[in-house]
Amino acid sequence: MVRKNRKIRNSDPNKKKQVMGKILDFRKDVLTLPNLLTATRIFFVPFVLFLIWHNTPVSRLWSWIFYTIATVTDFFDGYFARKHGTVSVTGKLLDPLADKFIVNLTLVLLVSMGEMSVLPVLIILSREFYIFGIRSMAIQNGLVISAGQSGKIKTMFQMFALPFFMLDQSTLKALIGIEWDPRIWGYILIWASIFFSLFSAYNYSKAVKKRIFGE
Question: pTM of whole model > 0.70?
Answer without folding.
Answer: yes
